[in-house]
């Protein structure tokens, strides 16, 4: 089995409630969305393996990825992208010799069913924006994915909301109410450098019914990947 992977590297987790833990990142190519703030590589002929300091030709064999996971001394393995749920079969076929952490846009519920065995889910609730087509359909699929990958005793699931300075407050609150029973908390993550006034207001409103934290992207603040 093979997958297209743009990067393999170790770094701290820079977002969400596991902020600061050391992780091995497996960054897959490809995504089903096209968010305006996206800064990840969508495809690449080469995979940059920083752990072993070499470039590999895509696609990458699963045995290679397994070896990197097994030999890595980290808190957990972060599957990111792109959209890692597009590679659900590949992730499912790996042996979980370390805790698995899934960073996902939560818009592919059929794939979410394949990934119930992961230990951590950092799932997005996308805010309406021009480049996201069929937003209403995407939100319905997001609710389904959170229900499938909900927070349990064995799996820690939180919801991340990436926010510009202006957004539709009421719509986010309504969506958060649909998700609140499936997550341990909400994380409001400002787009890097935006005004925070409206985000502080949103935090107060969500606090009425759920735990909610404002956490910026710390890896960008301290200048690491
Ligand atoms: S879901 Fe993530 S990877 Fe996909 S376009 Fe949006 S920010 Fe980029």
Relevant terms:
alpha/beta; TIM Barrel; ten-stranded mixed sheet; 12 strands; binds iron/sulfur cluster
Describe the secondary structure blueprint for this structure.
Layout: E1 2-3, E2 5-12, E3 22-28, E4 46-49, E5 54-57, E6 60-61, H1 62-71, E7 76-80, H2 88-93, E8 100-104, H3 109-112, E9 120-124, H4 135-148, E10 156-163, H5 169-179, E11 186-190, H6 197-207, E12 212-214, H7 218-222
Parallel strand pairs: 2-4, 3-7, 7-8, 8-9, 9-10, 10-11, 11-12
Antiparallel strand pairs: 1-6, 2-3, 4-5
Helix content: 25-40%
Q: Please state the oligomeric state of the protein chains shown.
A: single chain
Q: Largest beta sheet, briefly? A: 10 strands, mixed
Strand content: 25-35%
Order of helices and strands: EEEEEEHEHEHEHEHEHEH
**Tally of separate domains:** 1
The helix tally amounts to 7
Reported CATH architecture? Alpha-Beta Barrel
Mean pLDDT reading = 95
Spatially, the strands of the biggest sheet line up as 5-4-2-3-7-8-9-10-11-12
Low-pLDDT runs of 5+ residues are none
Overall radius of gyration: 17 Å
Count the strands? Answer: 12
CATH superfamily: Aldolase class I
Shape: globular
CATH topology: TIM Barrel
CATH C-level: Alpha Beta
First and last CA, distance: 28 Å
Structural class from helices and strands? alpha/beta
Small molecules held by this entry = iron/sulfur cluster
